Amino acid sequence: MISRKTLISMRKSLSEKEYIERNELIYTNFLNAIDFSGKSVMSYCSFNNEVDTKKINQDIIKKNGNIILPKSNWDTLGLIPYKISCQKEVILSKYGIPEPLEKKENLISKEEIDIVIVPGVIFDKNLFRIGYGKGFYDRFLSGLRPDVLKVGLAYDFQIINDSHPKEHDIAMDVLICENGFVDL
User: Fold this and answer.
1) What is the pLDDT of residue 10?
2) Which domain covers residue 71, as residue numbers?
3) pTM of the model
């Protein structure tokens, strides 16, 4: 199996032109595959050459008035969902990860989430993902309602045949990449 380090390096080596072109295709495929109007959507703010979520997040805010973003809790290795209504409510964490401002009034319950957009380093053809290795998303996803739509975003080269998922790994319902989408 290809390593996390290799795939992160491959993401970082994308030229600016290739990065823009690949992300535009993924953005278009996302809009064609996912109906998020009127739904409570949790996304993420991309960094480290992850699939760019800026346009997706802006569209969700424009259509729904807000979006939910995760804040990392490094003590518990958990994610805390916060609702924001504009990108100005995002700051860089001490680890350089864009995260929502920590405002008590914007804290929401996992029960309110209808769709969650999930980053990953590696995805497989059975829609399982491998992240950076701390289990933040595995723990978070396991606590969601069973009907929550889990959407992975990936570049084609991040998709492998089998990631050898563990018992605690949670599969995505849909994986969107440049060449379209995969669902179960």
Assistant:
1) 92
2) 4-183
3) 0.93
